[in-house]
């Protein structure tokens, strides 16, 4: 419809729920799925006269993320009150960080197709408290559950450096992997541990001039799919709107939109939004936080090799595909277990296949990580060696792995018990090959003639041997014997 070239410009605001034991400013437990209003106290209920106390662990988790995002860590930060008049935060303000966020001016590398990466700027990282949940499912009135009120929430704001829906998704996925690697959030999307708010507009070139469409912010997306789809849909909507109305960015026409998942559209929530007046002011009940070198070094000790670096290293060091390395490094324990198995003598690609095929399937069934399946690195390396040597087939390897999870037995024991050892004894196999050759003179002639039918006939004879050995012959060895006898 449009012949005008244009660029999409997207920035992202992300809220991440931190996995601390207790809430941000009180001692209530942070637990998902508990009876409503069972994890509350006078502090998070906003009773008069109570005093908040900062959760040091939440602050350290946040600094760790800011470090991983290459941010400059503030030596001095403070808390601010942000006016918030809704029942899900009963003290009528949210404690947040306004002008002095704990981290700023960082960046994250995100993976793109074909092993390329792109650097996206991080504007700021700050810590705040989450609100509770308003529920509107009880008929004529609303209910509020304050179990989540006051739980620590990390807010990350990126620069508008992303230029496609796919890049936005890549950043979200990378961030999820990062906070999981760092052990600061479970980052379970279904439990709302990560929420996204993309800011989108287009820069359209028309008749030699650039036109910027009004920025739309899409609120509260909580799945990668909704995030990616909503950005793609909003891109098209803005293009259509520009072609129809010529409307461009200007004062008072930044809009807030929501995502209608059923209709797969963005819907207008608020228009002509004025500059927000949250009436921020410094929180008088909390002391500022001063970061010293020793404390910062202690926190830095919690850094690890970040997933994207690990992924690239696995490609180079273990000669894996970018895809395989990505699957292995989706989770830190899986990535580390892989290395243990390789260090124990497993060939990297074989180990990768076992972990990402049978391993992930079994882990899904047992709702645990691959590393928690109860298989030792030594045993898995042994299994990889058996497959490598042709002692068992790759598919038998998966069966053996299943049994290893059940019984914890060594792969060789299982292979023998289940009769999965491939016959590689050349003497025994030669006898069988001789029998097959004697019984199939036509196919033998075809092979010997070396014509078009040669390959097919060779395959037929090989198949006969495999059948006779009930699939237990090592096909490579049988093929060799056949070739030697018929040439
Ligand atoms: Zn509380
Ligand atoms: Mn926020």
Description:
- The chain is elongated.
- It has three domains: 6-297, no CATH class; 307-417, no CATH class; 426-486, Arc Repressor Mutant, subunit A (Orthogonal Bundle).
- It has helices at residues 56-68, 165-182, 224-245, 293-300, 307-318, 322-328, 332-343, 348-366, 377-389, 394-407, 411-417, 426-439, 441-449, 454-468, 475-486; strands at residues 6-17, 72-73, 76-77, 80-83, 93-96, 103-111, 117-129, 133-135, 143-145, 152-158, 194-206, 209-212, 216-218, 255-260, 265-270, 281-282, 289-290.
- It is α+β, with helices and mostly antiparallel strands and 487 residues long.
- The strands form four sheets. Strands 1, 2, 6, 7, 10, 11, 12, 13, 14 and 15 form a ten-stranded mixed beta sheet that branches. Strands 5-4-16 form a three-stranded antiparallel beta sheet, with no helix packed on it. It has a two-stranded antiparallel ribbon with strand order 3-17.
- A hairpin with a 4-residue loop joins β14 and β15 (265-270).
- Bound molecules: zinc ion and manganese (II) ion (MN).
- Residues 15, 128, 155 line the site of manganese (II) ion (MN).
- Manganese (II) ion (MN) binds next to loops.
Q: What value does the Rg take, in angstroms? A: 30 Å
Portion in helices: 40-55%
Query: Helix/strand-derived class?
Result: alpha+beta
Let me know the number of strands: 17
Nearest-integer average pLDDT? 93
Note the gap between the termini.
Answer: 65 Å
Question: Which ranges are low-confidence, i.e. pLDDT below 50, for 5 or more consecutive residues?
Answer: none
Shape label: elongated
Oligomer state equals: single chain
What's the helix count? 15
Beta fraction: 15-25%
- List all distinct small molecules, including ions and cofactors, that are bound in this structure: zinc ion, manganese (II) ion
Q: What is the total domain count?
A: 3
Largest sheet: 10 strands, mixed
